[in-house]
Amino acid sequence: MTAVPILEAKNVCFNYQTGKPVLRDLNLAIPAGARVALVGPNGAGKSTLFLHFNAILRPTGGALYYQGKPYDYSRQSVNRLRQKIGLVFQDQDMQLFAPTVLDDVLFGPMNMGLTLAEAERAARAAVETVEMTDYLADPVHFLSPGQKKRVALAGVLAMEPDVLVMDEPTAGLDYAGSVNLCEIMGRLHKAGKTLVISTHDMDWVMEWADLVVAMFDGQVSACGTAAEVLLRPDHAELGFARPTGYGKPDGWKRCGE
Ligand SMILES: Nc1ncnc2c1ncn2[C@@H]1O[C@H](COP(=O)(O)OP(=O)(O)OP(=O)(O)O)[C@@H](O)[C@H]1O
Ligand SMILES: [Mg+2]
Question: Taking 60 as the threshold, does the pLDDT of residue 122 lie above it?
Fold first, then answer.
């Protein structure tokens, strides 16, 4: 018997108000505990799919499943889903809205029904994890984009999700930020969490992913191990680069292990 995927999309179709199909009969199963990377060209539909995982968008056809059960879009279920499946947006300005860093990170745990003391403990721990404690009382809108990214991640970590979905988490981070992110992801993976990212950084994918999903024009164009997908001879037609470091004698080292 095969294990039930933690997240699954079956025949998912979606179009925005413009009417153009963006997700076209998309099928994808994500095993629990996996490190999954979505790759593919701009406009392939990666962010749109992620917004479906988090129940921000609802498919116009097909369905999403969490632990084998179809998504229920009642307010209560959606709140629960968003706690279990945390999404870090591609655009941090869409995610952050509270006046200060602490207020922003507090929002999720407060919404989960924790007391203020419990929520504050979770929020402070998450802010410490992303190394932003010095900025707790600072206004979010004065932070740099990379710092906003860390705060957005803290906001999701504070809810202790089972699945962490991150849309282009490596973009715009400095060296320390990338190493920190890599360590956080290593720890979460060891704790059994499922990690799903999108990225255009093929070296990162090659080093990190257990499962690589390539998307093209709203569909899954290839799926498999990093080597199976990224080293395909038709990678250019599918709209993604090969990892530049492939073949280096020292290979890649998995960060955080
Ligand atoms: N709010 C929106 N309204 C209308 N169309 C949209 C909206 N957001 C995205 N789209 C369209 O949906 C398609 C898929 O966009 P999406 O952002 O999901 O792609 P992506 O794979 O995440 O690309 P990128 O690599 O640039 O982040 C694009 O053609 C885009 O123009
Ligand atoms: Mg995107």
Answer: yes
